[in-house]
Each structure stands twice: as structure tokens, then as C-alpha cells.
From TrEMBL:
Organism: Hyphomicrobium nitrativorans NL23
Name this protein carries in UniProt: 3-dehydroquinate dehydratase
Top-level lineage group: Bacteria
Length: 171
């Protein structure tokens, strides 16, 4: 099973988002067939809670945040939009896919929803998977993939090397 995570603390989320997007864009520009979604760094933000996911196969963007208004004190994930993004990403997954990148294994995934089914499908197809995992969800990630999951450092070159090794020359 070729699956790896980049584990991060809460304040490192934006940096890991940018790192995953950078890696995805680089691999896609090199001709890799990708599936999954990354948080697009290009979208303008009015608050830290706004999030747009970009489907890696089509480039389509889906806004993930419910609009709560200017006086709201919390963030709210639009779960319907997340499931739309999952459906879009999963539709492009096939055995010719070289790599699946998912920006988060978060609360929805720990509850058995979100991108969890796509990750399972990729593993069943023997497609390599790279995922961002917030420290608070690490135990759930371990239960999902097994007790000794591969965790990569926040180093672009080492992550790219893992991607190339995980894919191998057969694809």
C-alpha cells in the first residue's frame, strides 16, 4: 500500500496546503494524471475560514465554506460542497491515475465521510495516495491505514521523491 501523510499542527495548515498544491501543480505540469483535491492558493480570502478546493483532474474549483455573515465567530464547512468535491474527484480516479492527493484527512474523514471513500478506492486500485493530516486527527488516521503509517517531513524534495518511488516506472 503506497499511502503517505504529511502531519501538521494547526498553525501549519496553510503551509501544508501550499506545499501540497505546489507539488500537485508541479507533477501535473510534468504530465502526471492526478486525482484528488488541494486547497487553491489563488482564491482571494476575506477570512481564514474561507476555503476553495481545486479538483486536480479537471481544475474545477468548489467553494467549501458556508457564508455565516460578518458577525459569525466560527468557521463552517459546507458539507454538501465537500461531498460535491469528493464526487468530482472520485469520478476522475481510474487505474491510469498515478497519484491521489487530498489536502485533508479531517473531521469528516474520521467520521467515515469526505474523501475517505476515495482514498479507499485509490488503495484498492493500487494508486499511490498523499494526504495532509492535522495532528488532532492522527489517531484516526492510524486506525484507518494501520498502526505504522508512513509520515513524510514538510520537505518538498523528499515528498516528491516519495511520490516518484511510490508510483514507480510501471505507470
Amino acid at each position: 500500500m503506497n499511502i503517505a501523510a504529511i502531519v501538521y499542527q494547526g498553525d501549519q495548515g496553510a503551509a501544508v496546503d501550499a506545499l501540497l498544491a505546489d507539488i500537485a501543480y508541479d507533477l501535473r505540469a510534468s504530465g502526471w494524471k492526478l486525482a484528488g483535491a488541494v486547497q487553491t492558493p489563488a482564491a482571494p480570502r476575506n477570512s481564514r475560514c474561507e476555503m476553495t478546493l481545486e479538483d486536480l483532474a479537471t481544475g474545477a474549483c468548489v467553494e467549501m465554506s458556508d457564508e455565516l455573515g460578518p458577525t459569525a465567530s466560527g468557521c463552517r464547512l459546507d458539507t454538501e460542497a465537500l461531498e460535491d468535491s469528493v464526487g468530482l474527484a472520485t469520478a476522475s480516479l481510474d487505474p491510469a491515475t498515478r497519484l491521489v492527493i487530498v489536502n485533508r484527512f479531517g473531521k469528516r474523514e474520521t467520521d467515515g465521510r469526505g474523501f475517505r471513500s476515495m482514498i479507499e478506492s485509490a488503495v484498492a486500485m493500487d494508486v499511490a495516495v498523499l494526504v495532509g493530516v492535522k495532528q488532532v486527527h492522527l489517531d484516526a488516521w492510524k486506525r484507518f491505514v494501520g498502526d505504522e503509517p508512513l509520515m513524510l517531513p514538510h520537505e518538498r524534495d523528499r515528498i516528491l521523491a516519495w511520490c516518484k518511488d511510490a508510483v514507480g516506472s510501471e505507470r
